[in-house]
Task: inverse folding
């Protein structure tokens, strides 16, 4: 029942809003005055919102999806009316109703019909031999373009370190940007992103020679791996292709065998990457103990929306992308709406074990940026503002990121299991398990 | 041997200038960049594609490639090393003694914080409510708010609801600690160094703090020889600080300050002396009152109070009686009013045979003409905190109500204000009144007065007041006020600016939020001082 314990938190509603504007407008509308026929039955949330016109807007939300429907003309999705209704519900100001309003019941029925039609086997979706042939040619053409582009890049990299990164350094950023543009033309967007990141490392950035040298080294390694791909194992080739910027269709991933489990959502992080906003959601299987990363994308400056919320667990089958180590996944069949996590007491690794996991993952994928871990320990803080996590054996790792203080507020004084992303710079915590309670930071 | 730092330096200057050879690299790195031997091609098989001059041919690669290979190896090795934590023991914070606020209230607080208008006011109220109920904040929200402690209001609000756990957390961050200390949220002993090293304002603050606990020690600081050498502005501030813990023991010192070379300092001293019942200043005012205020019985008419001009003398100048005002009132008349304001209100029966209330509200004559003595007695009521006199004066003259608000009892004050607003009087007090807690009847009366202002050209004035009204009104008045605000919005002229309309809508929304908070907190009673556990250091 949506009116029960699985009610969303306000933070989750915040995340569901497509942008700040809708979020703020939704908050303004989250007052009883303009609303009528409001209720919730099962996972169906509904209400009428009186706008400036005569006819109130009809808002229906299936929180299990989530799916939204509003009769307003807004192009934002979900619109401010839907977001406002979610706020009211999240704040416990909407009572469960036995029967849904007519408009909401009709919308739910239509959706159920669509789902039934979609589930029925579809004829004529198989590719013809001609289509297969054309697809293979397109793929081969792209490989050729990338070959040519990366050969050009290899020369560029050698030229940069041969003449010296400090030479003509005020034009260095422009040179890297231009090379990034060439990589876009060569259909290697992953490489282009790395070059743009390197273009940001100007002479004003502390320790710039070291950071730039490391970045160029990794890029060089990626180019080399691509050029030697015929000699590499298949899973490493898949990893290399992924870093170069080849995508794998979700349908293809979903066609691979899945891993059913109850997956706990341990954290999410949004980042703007080259005209695309990316949301990384970290999960861990309760039975399998496997980590997983599900990614969501949004273009045009919009905030990515996802239906995975930290602090919840969902019974689902995850299908993993090819590559090594297996981490990125797509959510396949899910049994029911995500539920708040309760009474989950995972065993955390020691710092040494977590470090070993990170090194193993890095050995498999040298371009890997972080690895999800569960580590048990207590938090440290020095006078200079440095944070750390120390385990029972006295081994420690730096703790970084914006959640350090909340983590300290949650766990200061007791040993906890922390979920986070481990990398060479330290552990970026996203959640803590205090007793049997999962606290999202 | 080239370590990573030297490799980066080489990359910066260029391998053209400083070439790199594999044998200069550490063996582990050199090994990593040396590829395993190639499989021997079968007869007729072509050589696999790849760089002919790459690291596949150790020793033959160009220095730039060697550097890039080494950089790749170093990059992976360096990433594999996880930075250790600081070399300090684990943080041990005491357990929290405050239960977390209920999720609904936390959700409402997040909504309040996300709103642009009335955010600070609503947040302040909600945090105060949590503090008074012994409730705390969830860790992430606590840390979020601690990030805003540079704002003194937030710091004070937080100071009131931190428990031992919270204070220990604050203690870990010097910025938070300092901000909370600066805001007065931390009860810290006054630092004696401030007296020697602080600015004039800081020293005055220190002095006031010291006076609160030890008035004599505070005064002794000013009696020291160095005081006279302080700049005039500093002397004025420091003497003003004696208002804290003011008592008869300060009289001699203040008498000497009446001769200070700076007028501002003399004025402050005279003002302080006028507040000491046993001071010579008050005694002199009483003597003047005896001379210049008298009661005259009249046949079949109320007794008349006859007052006369108080001449300007060296002594009245020394006592800082006023000699001019903006209205051009004669000095002798101003002196008379100052005398009345300085005489303790309970001394009038002994001086002239009538109470202060009788004198203030009865007929009075000055040079044969009627005179209104109520403003002078209003000043006296304020000075001597005489609530009865204040009530009588305010009832008699609504224009003095605003001045007398601080000394009126809350019940009387609210009743008088409701009457004044309902009668369409005291419109000038609205701005001050909406900034105070408003019981339901008063809140409704204020809204009625605001509607009355719509008839004039005061739309922006109304818009500026609906917000504070929504913040300070008793939640019990919410239904009536929301209806009233809707009515007010309907009455706005069609061409009213959108911002005005929005202010009214925002006020209605704020009221509903406050009502929701109030309902959500109903199960959590306000703690009495006995039950309230204070975690503050």
Result:
């Amino acid at each position: 029942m949506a009116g029960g314990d699985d009610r969303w938190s306000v933070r989750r509603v915040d995340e569901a809003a497509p942008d700040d504007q809708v979020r703020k407008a939704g908050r303004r509308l989250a007052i009883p005055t303009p609303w009528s026929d409001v209720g919730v039955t099962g996972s169906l949330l509904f209400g009428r919102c009186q706008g400036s016109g005569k006819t109130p807007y009809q808002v229906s939300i299936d929180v299990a999806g989530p799916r939204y429907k509003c009769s307003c003309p807004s192009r934002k999705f979900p619109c401010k009316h839907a977001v406002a209704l979610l706020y009211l519900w999240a704040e416990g100001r909407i009572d469960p109703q036995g029967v849904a309003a007519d408009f909401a019941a009709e919308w739910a029925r239509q959706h159920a019909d669509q789902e039934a039609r979609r589930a029925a086997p579809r004829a004529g979706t198989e590719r013809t031999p001609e289509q297969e042939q054309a697809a293979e040619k397109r793929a081969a053409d792209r490989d050729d373009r990338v070959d040519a582009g990366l050969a050009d890049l290899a020369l560029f990299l050698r030229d940069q370190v041969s003449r010296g990164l400090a030479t003509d350094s005020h034009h260095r950023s422009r040179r890297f940007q231009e090379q990034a543009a060439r990589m876009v033309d060569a259909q290697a967007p992953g490489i282009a992103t790395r070059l743009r990141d390197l273009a940001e490392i100007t002479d004003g950035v502390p320790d710039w020679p070291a950071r730039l040298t490391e970045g160029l080294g990794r890029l060089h390694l990626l180019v080399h791996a691509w050029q030697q791909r015929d000699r590499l194992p298949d899973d490493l080739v898949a990893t290399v292709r992924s870093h170069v910027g080849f995508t794998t269709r979700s349908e293809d991933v979903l066609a691979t065998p899945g891993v059913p489990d109850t997956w706990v959502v341990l954290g999410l992080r949004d980042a703007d990457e080259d005209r695309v906003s990316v949301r990384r959601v970290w999960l861990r299987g309760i039975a399998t103990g496997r980590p997983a990363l599900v990614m969501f994308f949004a273009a045009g400056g919009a905030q990515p929306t996802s239906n995975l919320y930290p602090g919840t667990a969902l019974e689902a089958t995850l299908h993993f992308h090819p590559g090594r180590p297996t981490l990125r996944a797509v959510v396949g069949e899910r049994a029911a709406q995500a539920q708040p996590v309760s009474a989950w007491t995972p065993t955390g690794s020691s710092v040494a074990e977590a470090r070993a996991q990170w090194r193993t993952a890095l050995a498999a994928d040298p371009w890997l940026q972080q690895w999800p871990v569960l580590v048990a320990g207590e938090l440290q803080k020095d006078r200079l503002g440095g944070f750390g996590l120390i385990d029972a054996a006295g081994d420690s790792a730096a703790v970084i990121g914006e959640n350090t203080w909340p983590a300290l507020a949650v766990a200061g004084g007791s040993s906890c299991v922390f979920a986070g992303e481990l990398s060479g710079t330290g552990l970026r915590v996203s959640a803590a398990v205090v007793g049997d309670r999962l606290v999202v930071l | 041997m080239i370590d990573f730092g030297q490799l980066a330096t080489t990359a910066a200057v260029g391998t053209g200038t400083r070439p790199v050879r594999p044998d200069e690299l550490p063996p582990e790195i050199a090994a990593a960049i040396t590829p395993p031997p190639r499989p021997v091609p079968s007869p007729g098989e072509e050589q696999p594609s790849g760089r002919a001059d790459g690291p596949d041919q150790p020793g033959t690669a160009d220095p730039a490639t060697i550097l890039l290979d080494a950089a790749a190896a170093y990059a992976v090795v360096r990433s594999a090393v996880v930075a250790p934590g600081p070399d300090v023991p684990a943080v041990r914070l005491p357990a929290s003694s405050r239960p977390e606020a209920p999720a609904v209230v936390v959700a409402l607080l997040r909504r309040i914080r996300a709103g642009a208008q009335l955010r600070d006011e609503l947040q302040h109220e909600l945090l105060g409510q949590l503090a008074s109920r012994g409730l705390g904040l969830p860790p992430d929200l606590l840390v979020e708010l601690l990030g805003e402690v540079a704002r003194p209001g937030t710091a004070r609000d937080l100071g009131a609801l931190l428990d031992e756990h919270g204070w220990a957390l604050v203690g870990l961050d010097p910025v938070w600690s300092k901000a909370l200390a600066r805001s007065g949220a931390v009860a810290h002993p006054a630092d004696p160094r401030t007296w020697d090293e602080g600015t004039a304002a800081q020293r005055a603050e220190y002095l006031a703090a010291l006076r609160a606990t030890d008035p004599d020690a505070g005064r002794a600081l000013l009696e020291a020889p160095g005081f006279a050498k302080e700049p005039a502005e500093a002397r004025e501030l420091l003497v003003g600080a004696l208002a804290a813990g003011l008592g008869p023991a300060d009289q001699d010192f203040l008498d000497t300050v009446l001769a200070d070379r700076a007028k501002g300092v003399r004025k402050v001293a005279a003002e302080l002396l006028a507040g000491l019942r046993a001071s010579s200043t008050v005694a002199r005012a009483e003597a003047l009152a005896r001379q210049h205020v008298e009661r005259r019985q009249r046949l079949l008419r109320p007794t008349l109070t006859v007052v006369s001009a108080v001449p300007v003398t060296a002594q009245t100048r020394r006592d800082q009686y006023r000699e001019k005002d903006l209205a051009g009132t004669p000095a002798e008349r101003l002196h008379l009013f100052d005398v009345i304001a300085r005489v303790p209100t309970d001394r009038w029966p002994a001086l002239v045979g009538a109470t202060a209330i009788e004198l203030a509200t009865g007929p009075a004559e000055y040079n044969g003409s009627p005179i209104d003595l109520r403003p002078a007695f209003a000043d006296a009521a304020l000075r001597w905190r005489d609530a009865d006199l204040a009530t009588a004066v305010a009832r008699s003259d609504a224009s003095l109500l605003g001045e007398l608000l601080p000394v009126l009892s809350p019940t009387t004050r609210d009743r008088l204000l409701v009457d004044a607003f309902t009668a369409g009087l005291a419109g000038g007090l609205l701005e001050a009144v909406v900034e105070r807690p408003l019981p339901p009847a008063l809140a409704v009366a204020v809204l009625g007065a605001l509607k009355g202002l719509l008839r004039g050209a005061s739309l922006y004035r109304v818009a500026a007041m609906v917000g504070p009204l929504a913040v300070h009104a008793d939640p019990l008045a919410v239904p009536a006020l929301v209806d009233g605000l809707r009515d007010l919005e309907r009455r706005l002229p069609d061409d009213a600016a959108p911002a005005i309309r929005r202010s009214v809508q925002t006020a209605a929304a704020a009221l509903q939020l406050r009502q929701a908070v109030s309902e959500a907190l109903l199960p959590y009673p306000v703690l009495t001082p006995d039950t309230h556990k204070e975690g503050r250091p």
Summary: Chain B touches chain A through 79 residues (CB under 8 Å). Residues 36-59, 532-537 of chain B have pLDDT under 50 and may be disordered. Strands of chain B lie at 293-298, 301-307, 364-366, 369-370. DSSP finds 29 helices and four strands in chain B.
